[in-house]
Each structure stands twice: as structure tokens, then as C-alpha cells.
Amino acid sequence: MLGPVILAASRSGRLRRLICAAPVTRQVVDRFIPGETVEEIVPIIQDLTGKGLELTLDVVGEDITTPGQAAAARDAYLALVDRLRELELGTRAEMSVKLSMFGQALEGGHELALANVRPVVEAAAAIGTTVTLDAEDHTTLDSMFAIHEELRKDFPQTGCVIQAYLFRTEADARRLAGAGSRVRLVKGAYKEPAEVAYQQKHEIDKAYVRILKTLMEGAGYPMIGSHDPRLISIGQELARRAGRKPDEYEFQMLYGIRGEEHLRLAAEGHRMRVYTAYGTDWYGYFMRRLAEKPANLLFFGRSILTKG
């Protein structure tokens, strides 16, 4: 499988310098990350919402080594909230955050991440939107779920992400499927050991369907994070069987992948949210996009061969 190889390579400092220095890289990165600043992505936000799509916005960057960097990440999200308020798009765009950006891996990281993310969640609520806590590698999840539970006491609309490839996720889904919850289900994009995660695609797909069935039959709000046509069709069928209306669940896909499908689902009356990342520290996000889908790697390789 290419995915684990790419993820392992992504931790190489030498490879990082090589990819970041390649002239063609920026052209390819733009497919997935359309800007480095809030102002650069404002036209993207306006274009997508004008087409009937919704967004979740992610300020990329996970290599946080100091409390000051974590505070800067918090401030970047607060600036994003201010811009969404000015655009009057609070009901059309939410935010996705990785707690590693807020200092989760530092000394006292759990408390630090909670302290940094809370004002972002509060500011989001003030403009009519919300925040979803992204899942990272399995060692961070107990902390993430605890922070999620704490935030929901004051901001019950706060969402979280669960990953189908982890053995623990079926139990997590049953716990999270209650009234008022918002849960995004994805396959998973981190290199995880066989002791905690399925390694084969068919096993992950089967787990995804089982977990999605649990979410659809629950009382919460499922968010289907997948580009897989088969899983999208299964999601529609599970929603129908559960008697869900179109505004009682949604599909989510990444900016730059299957754009025509985004528009098709929206035209059919589905809620379709585009996960749109921006920022300067794009390397980790970019490498996971390559790892998730071999076609993305081929796209990158062809670009190097033809443009480099």
C-alpha cells in the first residue's frame, strides 16, 4: 500500500526540504490549498457558497513546539471568525481545528489546548457557526474526546471526527450518536499500527459502513466524510432507511477533489460541505492528501515530470 509509505516518508526532513523547494510543488499544492491567508481564500469562500455549497475551513499547521506558536494558531482562527462575520457567512462556513495546533503535544498540553480552543469555539458561536475537532493519531484521541465533551457543556454544537480504520471507533460512534451531536466519519489518514487499526482497504470500508449505520440510526447529526462513490451511495441509502431528511445529515469532501460531485450532490438537495484548508505550513496536510489516494500521487508525479 502506498499510503503508509508516503506517510512514513513525510516525516523525513530531507524529503520535506526537497518537496518544498521544488518549483512545481506550489502549483500542485494549490489544487488542495488555495491560499495562504484569509484574504486569499475569501474569493474561494464566496465562489463556493455562491454555488450552493457550504464550507469547513482549516488553518493548516501542526508542527507546534512552543506555547507562543499555539497562541498564534488560536489568533489565526479568531481572525478567520472576524472575516466570516464581516462576510455574513457564519451560517454557511464552519471551522475545523486540530488540537495539535493549539498545543496539545506540549507539556500540560491537554489544558493548554482546551484553553486555546475555547475562545475560538465561543467566537464561532457568536456569529452563528461552530467548530469541529479533527481526529489525529490514536494517541491523541482520549484528550480530544475529553476536550470535545468539555466544550459541549457550553457549546453543544461543537463537532468531532472519528476514523473508521481504528478498532475503537465503533464503540466511540455508539457513545457519540446521541441527540445534538455532530460527528464527521472519515476513513483515517494517519499511519497506525496493526494493533489498533485495520490495515486493508476492504476491512476499513466495511467498518465505515457499520459505523455510519450506527450514526444514521442515532439521534445526532452525521457528517459523511468520503470521496468514495460507493460509500456515498450507501450513505444515501442508510439515510433513507433511517428516515432522515436532507437537512439531517451532510456530505463532506476536500477542496480540489471531485469538484463536480460536490455540485451534483448540492443540486440534488443534499447538504454538501467542502473542507477547505489554507495557510503557510501546508506540508503535513499535503502529504496526507497524497497518502489517502494514489491518484493524488500520480497527479503530483505527472506534474513534476511535465513542469519540473
How are the elements arranged and paired?
Layout: H1 2-9, H2 13-21, H3 25-32, H4 38-50, E1 54-59, H5 67-87, E2 93-97, H6 109-126, E3 131-133, H7 141-154, E4 159-163, H8 169-176, E5 182-186, H9 201-217, E6 221-225, H10 229-241, E7 250-254, H11 259-267, E8 272-278, H12 283-292, H13 294-307
Parallel strand pairs: 1-2, 1-8, 2-3, 3-4, 4-5, 5-6, 6-7, 7-8
How does this model look, in words?
This protein is of the alpha/beta class. The protein has 13 helices and eight strands. The protein has helices at residues 2-9, 13-21, 25-32, 38-50, 67-87, 109-126, 141-154, 169-176, 201-217, 229-241, 259-267, 283-292, 294-307; strands at residues 54-59, 93-97, 131-133, 159-163, 182-186, 221-225, 250-254, 272-278. An eight-stranded parallel barrel has the order 1-2-3-4-5-6-7-8, surrounded by seven helices. It is globular. The two termini are 26 Å apart. 41% of the residues are buried.
Order of helices and strands: HHHHEHEHEHEHEHEHEHEHH
SS summary, helix count: 13
Can you give the helix content as a percent range? 40-55%
Content-based structural category: alpha/beta
DSSP summary, beta strand count: 8
Parts with pLDDT < 50 across at least 5 consecutive residues = 303-308
What is the percentage of strand-forming residues?
A: 5-15%
Mass-distribution shape: globular
- Main β-sheet, in a few words? 8 strands, parallel, barrel
Strand order of the largest sheet: 1-2-3-4-5-6-7-8
How far apart are the first and last residues' alpha carbons, in Å? 26 Å
